[in-house]
Structure prediction request, 177 residues.
Amino acid sequence: MNFSRRLLLIAGTALMAVGLAGCDKAAKTLNPPDLHVDRAYVRLAANPDAPSALYFTVHGGAKDTRLLNVLIDYALRYEMHESAKGADGLVTMKKLEYADIPAGEDVKFAPGGKHVMVWGIDPKVIAANKMPVIFVFQNGDRIEFDAQFVQPGEDADAAMDHDGMAMGNEAAGNEAR
Ligand SMILES: [Cu+2]
Prediction:
Protein backbone atom coordinates (compact mmCIF):
# COMPACT_ATOMS: atom_id res chain seq x y z
CA MET A 1 0.00 0.00 0.00
CA ASN A 2 1.51 3.35 -0.96
CA PHE A 3 1.67 6.29 1.34
CA SER A 4 -1.13 8.44 -0.09
CA ARG A 5 -3.56 5.52 -0.13
CA ARG A 6 -2.78 4.87 3.46
CA LEU A 7 -3.47 8.51 4.32
CA LEU A 8 -6.84 8.29 2.60
CA LEU A 9 -7.68 5.20 4.62
CA ILE A 10 -6.80 6.93 7.87
CA ALA A 11 -8.86 9.97 6.93
CA GLY A 12 -11.77 7.71 6.02
CA THR A 13 -11.61 5.90 9.33
CA ALA A 14 -11.56 9.19 11.22
CA LEU A 15 -14.61 10.42 9.31
CA MET A 16 -16.43 7.19 10.08
CA ALA A 17 -15.69 7.59 13.78
CA VAL A 18 -17.12 11.11 13.74
CA GLY A 19 -20.19 9.82 11.92
CA LEU A 20 -20.70 7.03 14.41
CA ALA A 21 -20.35 9.36 17.39
CA GLY A 22 -23.07 11.53 15.86
CA CYS A 23 -25.38 8.55 15.40
CA ASP A 24 -24.75 7.36 18.91
CA LYS A 25 -25.76 10.72 20.33
CA ALA A 26 -28.95 10.81 18.30
CA ALA A 27 -29.81 7.23 19.18
CA LYS A 28 -29.42 7.96 22.86
CA THR A 29 -32.13 10.62 22.89
CA LEU A 30 -34.57 8.40 21.02
CA ASN A 31 -33.98 4.91 22.29
CA PRO A 32 -33.66 3.61 24.94
CA PRO A 33 -35.39 6.24 27.08
CA ASP A 34 -33.26 7.85 29.75
CA LEU A 35 -34.66 8.10 33.27
CA HIS A 36 -34.61 11.81 34.05
CA VAL A 37 -36.40 14.65 35.79
CA ASP A 38 -37.28 18.12 34.56
CA ARG A 39 -39.78 20.96 35.08
CA ALA A 40 -39.19 21.05 38.82
CA TYR A 41 -40.65 24.02 40.63
CA VAL A 42 -41.89 24.98 44.05
CA ARG A 43 -45.15 26.86 44.26
CA LEU A 44 -44.63 29.08 47.30
CA ALA A 45 -47.51 29.37 49.72
CA ALA A 46 -48.97 32.84 50.21
CA ASN A 47 -48.66 32.33 53.96
CA PRO A 48 -44.98 31.80 54.82
CA ASP A 49 -45.94 29.44 57.65
CA ALA A 50 -47.96 27.19 55.34
CA PRO A 51 -46.24 24.42 53.38
CA SER A 52 -45.28 24.97 49.74
CA ALA A 53 -45.64 22.35 47.03
CA LEU A 54 -42.90 20.87 44.84
CA TYR A 55 -43.92 19.74 41.35
CA PHE A 56 -41.87 18.05 38.62
CA THR A 57 -42.00 15.58 35.76
CA VAL A 58 -40.23 12.23 35.82
CA HIS A 59 -39.49 10.68 32.44
CA GLY A 60 -39.32 6.90 32.73
CA GLY A 61 -36.21 5.03 31.61
CA ALA A 62 -35.72 1.73 29.79
CA LYS A 63 -37.16 -0.26 32.68
CA ASP A 64 -40.00 0.24 35.14
CA THR A 65 -38.89 1.73 38.43
CA ARG A 66 -40.28 3.69 41.35
CA LEU A 67 -39.59 7.09 42.77
CA LEU A 68 -39.02 6.26 46.43
CA ASN A 69 -38.36 9.69 47.84
CA VAL A 70 -36.88 13.09 47.31
CA LEU A 71 -34.10 14.55 49.45
CA ILE A 72 -34.03 18.27 50.13
CA ASP A 73 -31.22 19.73 52.20
CA TYR A 74 -32.79 23.19 52.33
CA ALA A 75 -36.13 22.41 53.94
CA LEU A 76 -37.09 21.46 57.49
CA ARG A 77 -39.57 18.81 56.41
CA TYR A 78 -41.07 17.36 53.24
CA GLU A 79 -43.46 14.59 52.35
CA MET A 80 -44.75 13.00 49.12
CA HIS A 81 -48.52 13.35 48.83
CA GLU A 82 -51.29 12.57 46.44
CA SER A 83 -54.45 14.66 46.18
CA ALA A 84 -57.63 13.00 45.04
CA LYS A 85 -61.23 14.05 44.81
CA GLY A 86 -63.52 11.82 46.88
CA ALA A 87 -67.07 10.76 46.03
CA ASP A 88 -68.27 13.70 48.13
CA GLY A 89 -66.41 16.08 45.82
CA LEU A 90 -63.92 17.04 48.51
CA VAL A 91 -60.23 16.95 47.70
CA THR A 92 -58.14 15.10 50.24
CA MET A 93 -54.42 14.40 50.45
CA LYS A 94 -52.81 11.17 51.46
CA LYS A 95 -49.21 10.28 52.03
CA LEU A 96 -47.53 8.67 49.03
CA GLU A 97 -45.04 5.91 49.88
CA TYR A 98 -43.66 5.79 46.32
CA ALA A 99 -44.66 6.61 42.76
CA ASP A 100 -44.50 4.03 39.98
CA ILE A 101 -42.43 5.23 37.01
CA PRO A 102 -43.26 2.93 34.09
CA ALA A 103 -40.62 2.49 31.38
CA GLY A 104 -40.70 5.29 28.82
CA GLU A 105 -43.65 7.07 30.41
CA ASP A 106 -43.91 10.55 31.87
CA VAL A 107 -45.17 10.85 35.42
CA LYS A 108 -46.17 14.35 36.37
CA PHE A 109 -46.25 15.64 39.90
CA ALA A 110 -48.69 18.46 39.29
CA PRO A 111 -51.34 20.58 41.05
CA GLY A 112 -54.37 18.46 41.93
CA GLY A 113 -52.38 15.23 41.91
CA LYS A 114 -49.04 14.02 43.19
CA HIS A 115 -46.83 16.58 44.86
CA VAL A 116 -44.21 16.98 47.56
CA MET A 117 -45.30 19.18 50.42
CA VAL A 118 -42.39 21.23 51.74
CA TRP A 119 -42.14 23.02 55.06
CA GLY A 120 -39.56 25.57 56.18
CA ILE A 121 -37.63 26.30 53.00
CA ASP A 122 -34.32 28.09 53.55
CA PRO A 123 -34.82 31.73 52.41
CA LYS A 124 -31.34 31.61 50.84
CA VAL A 125 -32.38 29.10 48.18
CA ILE A 126 -35.59 31.04 47.55
CA ALA A 127 -33.53 34.19 46.97
CA ALA A 128 -31.25 32.25 44.61
CA ASN A 129 -34.33 30.80 42.82
CA LYS A 130 -32.68 27.41 42.92
CA MET A 131 -33.32 24.55 45.32
CA PRO A 132 -31.32 21.36 44.72
CA VAL A 133 -33.49 18.26 44.96
CA ILE A 134 -32.23 14.68 44.82
CA PHE A 135 -34.71 12.19 43.39
CA VAL A 136 -34.16 8.67 44.74
CA PHE A 137 -35.27 5.74 42.60
CA GLN A 138 -35.71 2.07 43.35
CA ASN A 139 -33.21 1.09 40.63
CA GLY A 140 -30.48 2.88 42.59
CA ASP A 141 -30.43 6.03 40.49
CA ARG A 142 -30.17 9.31 42.32
CA ILE A 143 -30.86 12.27 40.11
CA GLU A 144 -30.16 15.80 41.23
CA PHE A 145 -32.22 18.56 39.66
CA ASP A 146 -32.68 22.17 40.75
CA ALA A 147 -36.22 23.35 41.39
CA GLN A 148 -37.15 26.95 40.66
CA PHE A 149 -39.61 28.99 42.68
CA VAL A 150 -42.98 30.25 41.54
CA GLN A 151 -44.61 33.02 43.57
CA PRO A 152 -48.16 32.63 44.85
CA GLY A 153 -50.53 33.45 42.00
CA GLU A 154 -47.75 33.49 39.39
CA ASP A 155 -48.17 31.37 36.26
CA ALA A 156 -45.74 28.46 36.51
CA ASP A 157 -45.15 28.13 32.75
CA ALA A 158 -44.46 31.82 32.34
CA ALA A 159 -42.26 31.92 35.43
CA MET A 160 -40.10 29.10 34.14
CA ASP A 161 -40.05 30.01 30.45
CA HIS A 162 -38.41 33.37 30.90
CA ASP A 163 -35.73 31.71 32.96
CA GLY A 164 -34.67 29.79 29.90
CA MET A 165 -35.40 26.46 31.54
CA ALA A 166 -34.74 23.59 29.17
CA MET A 167 -38.06 21.96 28.47
CA GLY A 168 -38.56 18.93 26.28
CA ASN A 169 -41.51 18.82 23.89
CA GLU A 170 -43.25 16.35 26.10
CA ALA A 171 -42.96 18.68 29.08
CA ALA A 172 -44.44 21.64 27.24
CA GLY A 173 -48.01 20.58 28.00
CA ASN A 174 -50.29 22.72 30.07
CA GLU A 175 -51.19 20.25 32.80
CA ALA A 176 -48.79 21.60 35.40
CA ARG A 177 -49.72 25.05 36.57
CU1 LIG B 1 -49.87 17.69 50.28
About this structure: Residues 1-31 form one domain. The longest helix spans residues 3-30. The longest strand covers residues 75-85. Residues 60 and 104 are 4 Å apart (CA to CA).
